[in-house]
Each structure stands twice: as structure tokens, then as C-alpha cells.
């Protein structure tokens, strides 16, 4: 299979590096393109052997599977530009939640997929969220799952939970990272611990935390129960978290859903030719 990637920003680059490092593909099977060609060339310098195309059309013509790694509002215009180069058997992939497989299949003659990656894929871990268009057949699904499984756990999700699933699997590392940074900052401000030591301890804790879950030694609930000793210090800390986090995560998901609706409306206007 020949893989194309249009857009070599953060997620486009992560996908290419994950494909190659996990041996899901060899460099000679990958062609990339970016509006600023120097960025694509920089990626090629890190991943020798991949090809750099001059146009999006060239990427599509050279690929069976093309990932569109651009902003949601850029997607309608991009699909219009590449439409004439897309064959019926080609698979075109959106990696952004506001653009689904139905949008792709309404714009080009190929097959549409939404494939939401995570930054954790760069460590050959985490989830890949998959939603298939109506033209995707059983063989296509098997191919896509096999490709994603080289560096992630592929999980098929229904269209109506796309945003919250993406919040948990893809945006989740940023949310958790923010909370950990706040915890480290508070530790250094309230005690004599150095930032360097606090970061080192927190990093190792998170690595171990992930290993416990990956090996299914504990669930999230049982892990907390194992650490918490009745009448102990951990319980005091958990009481503070219970009291002070309150509806914080409810507010978070409400805001991300609102932003998703705004983005979806903007994309729809683009597909309708209003933007």
C-alpha cells in the first residue's frame, strides 16, 4: 500500500514517523506534501527515503491511502482540488473530528474514513479512532485496522461520539499534562522540593501508572483503592480533589462540544460553497 500525507504539521509528522518506526510502512511507500515545502523537506530529513510531492494532486495520484492533515476549514477546498485525482478505490482519510467520512464521500469518488490519531502514537501506543464511510468494505476495514495496530489500538467509534471520544483519546494527554504541570507547580510552591525532582518523580509515576493499566494489574478504580489507606494521607488529598474539582470536567466537555459544533458549522458552510 502506498500512503500519502497532505499536511506535515504536528499530527501529519507524527503519523509518518509512527508508520515508519513501527514498520507499518517502509519509507519508499510514503509520499508527503505541505503548503510550505520546507516543512515537508524537514520531515524527509528526519525520515530518509520518503518522497516529497509538489502538489496535493500528486500525492493522491501516487497513493492508495491519503491522509488529509489540515485544518477543518481547509478541508472542503482541499477535497475540491484533489477530487479529479481520486479514483473509486482510493481511501481518503480525515484526521479531524468536524470532517467525517460522509463529507469525504460526498465530495470525491473515493472511499471516506475518519481516523483520529493521538500524540501517544508517536510512542507506538495509545488509540486510533476509526469511523468508516458507506463505501468502505470489510477488506478495507481489515487493512486499516492492521495498519493502525502497528502503533496503536484501533477502536471503531460511532459518528455521534466523535468529539468526546477524541477529547479522551487524543486531547486527553494535553488535559492530563496540564493537570500534572499544575500539581508539580503547587508542590514546588508549597514545599522545599525542587522542580527538577518533582518533574522526575511525576514522570516516573506516570510511566508506572500506564504500565499498571496496560498490564491490567489494576483498573482506575482499584488502583485508587490500593493506594488509599483508610485514615491516611492519600485519602485527605483525594477529599480535596473531590471537593475542589467539582463540575470542572463537566464544564470541559460542554465547552469542547460547543467548539465542535462551531467548527462543524464552519466546515458545512465550506462544503456548501459559502466560505
Structural features, described:
The structure is a single chain. The protein is α/β, with parallel strands linked by helices and 275 residues long. The protein folds into 3 domains: 3-157, 3-Layer(aba) Sandwich (Rossmann fold), CATH 3.40.50; 159-205; 218-275. It is 54% helix and 12% strand. The chain has 11 helices and 8 strands. The chain has helices at 10-21, 37-46, 56-61, 75-82, 101-107, 138-149, 162-190, 195-214, 220-227, 233-245, 248-271, and strands at residues 3-6, 30-33, 51-52, 65-68, 91-94, 111-116, 127-132, 153-156. An 8-stranded mixed β-sheet has the order 3-2-1-4-5-6-7-8, sandwiched between helices. α5 (101-107) links the parallel β5 and β6. α7 runs antiparallel to α8 (195-214). The longest helix is centred in the middle third of the chain and has 29 residues, at 162-190. The radius of gyration is 21 Å and the shape is elongated.
Query: How would a crystallographer describe the biggest sheet?
Result: 8 strands, mixed
Classify the secondary structure makeup into a structural class.
alpha/beta
* Structure summary, number of beta strands: 8
- Sheet-strand content, in percent, reads 5-15%
Count of separate structural domains: 3
What's the architecture of the largest domain in CATH terms? 3-Layer(aba) Sandwich
Helix content: 40-55%
**Cα separation of the termini:** 35 Å
- How do the strands of the widest beta sheet line up side by side? 3-2-1-4-5-6-7-8
Low-confidence stretches: none
Average pLDDT taken over every residue: 95
Large-scale geometry: elongated
CATH superfamily of the largest domain: NAD(P)-binding Rossmann-like Domain
Amino acid at each position: 500500500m502506498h500512503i500519502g500525507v497532505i499536511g506535515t504539521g504536528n499530527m501529519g509528522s507524527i503519523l509518518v514517523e509512527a508508520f515508519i518506526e513501527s514498520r507499518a510502512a517502509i519509507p519508499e511507500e510514503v509520499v508527503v506534501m505541505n503548503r510550505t515545502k520546507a516543512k515537508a523537506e524537514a520531515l524527509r530529513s528526519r525520515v530518509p527515503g520518503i518522497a516529497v510531492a509538489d502538489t496535493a494532486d500528486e500525492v493522491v495520484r501516487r497513493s492508495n491511502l491519503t491522509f488529509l492533515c489540515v485544518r477543518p476549514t481547509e478541508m472542503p477546498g482541499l477535497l475540491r482540488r484533489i477530487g479529479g485525482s481520486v479514483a473509486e478505490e482510493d481511501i481518503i482519510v480525515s484526521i479531524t473530528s468536524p470532517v467525517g467520512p460522509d463529507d469525504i464521500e460526498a465530495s470525491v469518488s473515493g472511499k471516506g474514513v475518519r481516523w483520529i490519531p493521538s500524540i501517544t502514537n508517536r510512542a507506538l501506543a495509545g488509540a486510533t479512532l476509526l469511523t468508516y464511510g458507506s463505501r468502505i468494505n470489510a477488506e478495507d476495514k481489515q487493512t486499516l485496522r492492521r495498519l493502525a495496530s502497528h502503533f496503536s489500538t484501533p477502536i471503531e467509534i460511532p459518528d455521534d461520539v466523535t468529539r468526546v471520544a477524541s477529547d479522551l483519546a487524543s486531547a486527553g494527554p494535553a488535559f492530563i499534562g496540564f493537570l500534572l504541570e499544575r500539581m508539580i507547580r503547587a508542590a514546588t510552591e508549597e514545599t522545599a522540593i525542587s522542580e527538577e525532582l518533582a518533574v522526575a518523580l511525576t514522570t516516573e509515576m506516570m510511566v508506572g501508572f500506564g504500565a499498571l493499566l496496560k498490564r491490567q494489574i489494576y483498573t482506575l478504580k482499584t488502583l485508587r483503592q490500593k493506594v488509599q489507606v483508610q485514615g491516611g494521607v492519600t485519602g485527605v488529598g483525594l477529599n480535596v480533589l473531590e471537593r475542589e474539582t467539582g463540575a470542572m470536567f463537566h464544564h470541559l466537555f460542554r465547552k469542547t462540544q460547543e467548539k465542535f459544533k462551531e467548527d462543524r458549522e464552519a466546515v458545512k458552510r465550506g462544503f456548501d460553497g459559502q466560505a
